[in-house]
Amino acid sequence: MSHLTIRIIPAEVLRQVAQPVTDIDKRVAKFMEDLAETMYKGNGIGLAANQVGSLERIIAVDVSEERNGKGALLMANPEVIWSDPVETFTYNEGCLSIPGHYANVTRPKRIRMTYLDPRGKKQELEAEDLLSQCIQHEIDHLNGVLFIDHLSKLKRDMILKKIEKERKEEEGHIL
Ligand code: NI
Questions:
Q1: Where in the sequence is the domain holding 147, given as residue range(s)?
Q2: For a designed S-S bond to 109, which of 21, 65, 89, 114 qualifies (C-beta 3.0 to 4.6 A apart)?
Q3: Domain containing 140 — which CATH number?
Q4: 170 lies in some domain
Q5: Residue 7 counted as domain residue
Q6: Is residue 33 a part of any domain in this protein?
Q7: Separation of CA 44 and ligand 1 centre (Å)
Q8: 111-141, pLDDT tens digit by residue?
Q9: How many angstroms is it from 173 CA to the middle of ligand 1?
Q10: Ramachandran class of 57: left when φ > 0, alpha when ψ lies in -120 to 50, beta otherwise
Q11: What is the DSSP secondary-structure string of 102-146?
């Protein structure tokens, strides 16, 4: 397995739309494992292909406490087929591509979804609360959407300004 490099905002790939996977072959299955390993290394509970520079519709998620790989959900072509029209869930979201920034995001509390597992088998999953929230955040990535897009323009601009400032300060340290 290998660690992949996580792309940070404003990397263009974070704003691009990933394409469906047509065949889960050995390469794709290995990529799914690598994506999960990179997620664990970064202490994230989810990671999407865009975040490591790939435009295939693949995500990794693990909201378990053990985080030993057994609870990992490796999903290709994840698709929400139903989302709770009434109840919502709010979570203080962060993102490995927007390090150091967090904000409350409200999303549907429950979803039903389908995906292909690393063996290419179609699976159906019902998720709620944190798992549902995390999957929705990762599927957003596949569509070029970031959690800051769910915030008010005022809040989003505040975060973007801080990121820009941090970037300039970092540039100043390169001697
Ligand atoms: Ni993210």
A1: 12-174
A2: 89
A3: 3.90.45.10
A4: yes
A5: no
A6: yes
A7: 8
A8: 999 999 999 999 999 999 999 999 999 999 9
A9: 27
A10: beta
A11: -EEEEEESEEEEEEE-TTS-EEEEEEEHHHHHHHHHHHHHHTT--
